[in-house]
């Protein structure tokens, strides 16, 4: 396939030797053909463990794997496909165009939240995953269906707040969960 086998062997050896910890697999495709498929030892993900390290395992092609934020890229690709196929008109549409059963939550300027705002994490939803450790029940990622660890609702910054929808990036996976349409009640402004 025109790939230097010696370089691939060195890369695999460095992973096995621990130079690049927590690399669980390496797959290389070229011209539609699988050139390399190697699996390594590493930790399973554990939400509440130090460094999120669970059991030490040998990974393989059948072992389920946490992908966390990779889902955001998959969701974005699905939105693009939905637009291309005519299921969604535009990323500039209000998310409430797709939540007819949740119109009662459309208050305090929430109609300004668009699909694009959710994709770019500029929705104005008052939640930031990076402010508290993920293992803490105070982390908003425990809300809106991530782990159902608590029932606190996500507040919307609204018109009079310092930060407006579409103007400020705040890392919060709940934006993508809204795009997946599984948990619209996260739009609630009250507890």
Q: Which segments are poorly predicted (pLDDT under 50) over 5 or more consecutive residues?
A: 143-162, 182-191
Number of helices: 4
Structural class: alpha+beta
Shape: extended
Helix proportion range: 10-25%
* Termini separation: 58 Å
The radius of gyration is 21 Å
Biggest sheet statistics: 2 strands, antiparallel
Q: Write down the overall mean pLDDT.
A: 79
Number of strands: 6
SSE string: HEEEEHHEEH
Q: β content, as a range?
A: 5-15%
Q: Which sequence of strands runs across the widest sheet?
A: 1-2
How does this structure look, described?
It is a single chain. The protein has 191 residues and is of the alpha+beta class. 20% of the residues lie in helices and 15% in strands. It has four helices and six strands. The strands form three sheets. A two-stranded antiparallel ribbon has the order 1-2. The protein has a two-stranded antiparallel sheet with strand order 3-4. A hairpin with a 7-residue loop joins β3 and β4. It is extended, with a radius of gyration of 21 Å. The chain starts with a helix and ends in a 12-residue tail after the last helix. Mean pLDDT is 79; it is low at 143-162 and 182-191.
